[in-house]
Amino acid sequence: MAILNTLALILGQTILPIFLVVLVGFILARRMALNTQTIGRVTFYIFSPALIFRGLYQTDLDYSTVGRTALLAALIFLASGLLGWLSSGKEDRRRRAAAALTSALSNNGNMGLSVSLFAFGTPGLSLAMIYFVTTAFLGNTIGVFVASSGKAAPMQALRRTAQVPMLYGAVLGLLLGYFQVELPVGLMRSVETLAGAAVPTLLVLLGAQLSHAPIQGRQMVLGRTALIRLVGGPLLATLLCALWGVQGLERTIVILQSAMPTAVTATVLATEYDAAPNLVATIVALTTVISLFTVSGVLWMLS
After folding, report:
1. What is the pLDDT of residue 114?
2. Is 100 exposed, middle or buried (0-12, 13-18, 19+ CB in 10 A)?
3. How far apart, in Å, are the Cα atoms of 227 and each of 186, 231, 243, 262?
4. What are the φ and ψ backbone dihedral angles of 106, each rounded to 5 degrees?
5. Which of 65, 187, 230, 285 has its CA 20 to 30 A from that of 72?
6. pTM (predicted TM-score)
7. Residue 136 included in any domain
8. pLDDT confidence of 204, banded at 50, 70, 90?
9. d(CA 52, CA 136)
């Protein structure tokens, strides 16, 4: 009974508030025409970089922790993608690319930052940002090659990476914080305002994007990919943290971030490179719904 009470508390106080905001976006997109592309661009180019910059500029994380968290995020991304590719060996190349993509790309932006903030406050959010920036970088480089089944030119992937403003926000925030550069009050207030809009907008945007995602077909690849993303991810993270001797809040955030559902970014890449986009959209929707319970379970185990 105590376990059920704890789970209910986590679900009600941390996970449910996030999904209620996502539901607002879902219902709004169903009732009226929302330009999710414009909302996404504003979030991607303005709100998210401001959030990342503010968090890393104000963080008191030591740089060994930053580097280790980024390395763990990269290893989990690569290992999850490889598992997705190997588990779909009987599928055609496009569907194998889709399985690898949806296994590797976790939703560390819309959901990951929100859950970390709600559950562990600003210290948790700072660590989650490192994980998010790392997976965003990998998604826009390795993710491009996977989605295109290796057909994308290296320069094309590099160009996509150069268009990820969160990377600039992260580097600038870390550098200014390291050298203790004090920004003018007026400028910092502007950054604070923009950063404050990031989390709610990300969640509403996620709901709006999911309103167009189909749930279709009884396909084995759906179950396998969902299992890798929602269960395999945190198991890999737990193993790697044990091998590295990572403890405390850093271990908690790494495992939590690895348990996030498939990112909507996977649908964007799959659509652009024709990597079974309907299958990818289905996996995104399916893992997001299931994560309501699996992420609650992971939070309970971590607590």
Report:
1. 92
2. buried
3. 47, 5, 23, 11
4. -100, 155
5. 285
6. 0.88
7. yes
8. very high
9. 12
